[in-house]
Amino acid sequence: MKLTKFVSIGLALFLGASASILSSSSTALAAEKVVLTFGPIRQTINITDLEDFAKDGTTTPTLQQIIRFSKMDAQILRGFIGLEIGLKPANLARVVYSTPGEKITDEIGQAIRTQRRTESGKALRAAMMLAAGDDGKVSLLEILKKYPLAEVYVDVASISAAVGKVQSLAGNMQSLLQDVMRSTSRTTETTRTESPIEPRRSVPPTTPPPARRPPAPLPATAPQPVMPVRGLW
């Protein structure tokens, strides 16, 4: 119980620090342009143009071109961009920074990605946390606005799949949270049952015994005088 409480406190401190850092970074740097891609076609559009499109359906020539090439219905695309999904920041953080959550967001990061396709999942998780931190809701438009890079690349053909994965993440939030808590519980039990490794005791150096001296030689016995034998002289 003590370790579980410690983990919970540590997570709360981590979330607080992360929110502060991410909020300051979002003010300093956020996506200003979106690069819409469809196969070999790339078209750059301003975030504000996407906001207008999601708000009232206004399209720019660039957006009209990408819609024409992708053969997507403009209203369906508009719905995907503006669709809001409720996600509580604390629950979202516990899930997206767990192993299953990282896998899901890495998959979404293939559609909403960095230019070099590196660390797209990490950037997406930061954007999702910032988006949810405002009002407990996440939309594709908010993720793009909060993306921690000046440019964000979006694969138009994968938008519907990406939005579907975010919806699935929100729909399975409770079960994912339970998985995270079970994993934490198993880690706690393992830590509790493991016997501590005692440090090796230092053995004091032993003093070698003093060398034994050889026994002193016995004194030589004095020669006894020879007594004459009677009858010989």
Gap from first CA to last CA: 116 Å
Could you state the order of secondary-structure elements as H and E?
Answer: HEEHHHEHHEHEHEHH
Mean pLDDT metric:
79
Strand order of the largest sheet: 2-1-6-4
Q: What is the rounded Rg? A: 39 Å
Number of strands: 6
Pick out the low-confidence regions.
1-28
Q: Please tally the helical runs, counting DSSP H or I stretches of 4 or more residues.
A: 10
Which descriptors would you attach to this protein?
alpha+beta
Walkthrough of the structure:
By secondary structure, this protein is of the alpha+beta class. 56% of the residues lie in helices and 11% in strands. It contains ten helices and six strands; from the N terminus they run H-E-E-H-H-H-E-H-H-E-H-E-H-E-H-H. It has helices at residues 2-28, 47-56, 61-70, 74-82, 89-96, 99-108, 120-135, 140-146, 159-171, 173-193; strands spanning 33-38, 41-46, 84-86, 112-113, 137-139, 151-155. Strands 2-1-6-4 form a four-stranded mixed β-sheet. The protein has a two-stranded antiparallel ribbon with strand order 3-5. Helix 2 crosses helix 4 (74-82), helix 6 (99-108) packs across helix 7 (120-135) and helix 7 (120-135) packs across helix 8 (140-146). Residues 1-28 have low confidence and may be disordered.
